[in-house]
Amino acid sequence: MASSKNSISAKSTLSKAPSAKPWGGRFTEPTNELVEAFTESISFDARLYKQDIQGSIAHSKMLAKIGVISDQEANSIETGLLDIRAQIDAGEFEWSTQLEDVHMNIEARLTDAIGEAGKKLHTGRSRNDQVATDIRLYMRQASDDVIALIKALQENLLASASNEVKTILAGFTHLQVAQPISLAHHLLAWNEMLERDVERLEDCRKRINVMPLGSAALAGTSFPLDRDMTCELLEFDRPSRNSLDSVSDRDFLIEFAAASSVIMMHLSRMCEEIILWASESYKFIDIGDAFCAGSSIMPQKKNPDIAEIVRGKSGRVIGNLQALLVIMKGQPLAYNRDNQEDKEPIFDTVDTVARSLQVFAAMIPSITFNRDIMYQSALKGYATATDLAEYLVRLDVPFRDAHEIVGGTVRYAIEQGKSLSDLSLTELQSFGTMIKQDVYDVLTLEGSVNSRSHFGGTAPARVSEALDAAKQRLSW
Ligand code: ARG
Q: Is the pTM higher than 0.70?
């Protein structure tokens, strides 16, 4: 099989099609201009060139091994493709919309450069398994990159948290002061979200890293391809099991877009808190000037634009997930051109998530925490009312009765314009005779926080352990 000499030269034996297209043979008319502009994908899939070349080199090496092309032809294909890659890297490659997509642009240039051998590269392959392979290679790298960016953010968060184990602020429910907490505990809650985001991407990566190459157009090929060999060369976990499924489904992109949507949803929640905390009403934090923007009319303004834009960008990533689901849902087996529409939303998803993570991570160390203001705010909202109820329970008052007693105490304190710890022992005892002097130990913010000392609680001693454990898990 491996011979370049007896191959039929299309130039000499076939009449020339009226189109430069590699698929032009059965066509009698050139493609309409509007159609060409509408169907091209080179304007966005050129970014797959490295993966396309990597896949083609592996395919040609395998074709040589099974004797479909000669070693010499495989070598010349490899040299030609590496040369094309260098040209593209250097910005010297001219892409043509006439050649539709990244696959045909590269293949056509290869044949121009090395002649007959270039025409053999597409043996036992279709653009359908080719593009599926390219996008999987691309997304494998993208997953690793996004995972690394999340971990870099975690590193910054944990570094900030290390200085704030004993910093007390009000924890909120319903955005109302609830109970005092350690600021590091709050930042560690963000870290938990990010840790699950990494797990989701790692899990999604397993299903990305399966090799469709060898599925050809949809039904496989009559050539005895060694798919294990290409699988190994391209470092996939395994060859795909079904040729129809391999060329058609894009569920792995949908999963990536879903995992990315969750990442953006998490970032957006963190941004929301940063925006609130930086506001005049809270003043819990100051964001570094380098990470803020001003107003063109109000000279005093310093706005948390990074956090707002990241929050806003969650919209497009979640929208991309929707787009991918809808693109896929109506497609019968096997490949349909609809799938070309997967590129822009998934590339935009990768770019948006990566850039958001990067800038958000860079902003974290620029944030200074106004510990005193946080502390004062926690003093205000009767944050230790639950502690008083739990104190009563320890004196054998049933919890529901304790809740009622403390409710009355808080109402009285509000009327008097006092905090709970401002009330005298006599005042407190008018609500419960069993109350003693030691009640003041639980009415302070420190007493409250220290008492929540079970695993997962906010006591500084536990938070310190949680922080160490989080750093351990992060080691990468
Ligand atoms: N540009 C196409 C895509 O992104 C490549 C595959 C085209 N295959 C075909 N038979 N027209 O899906």
A: yes
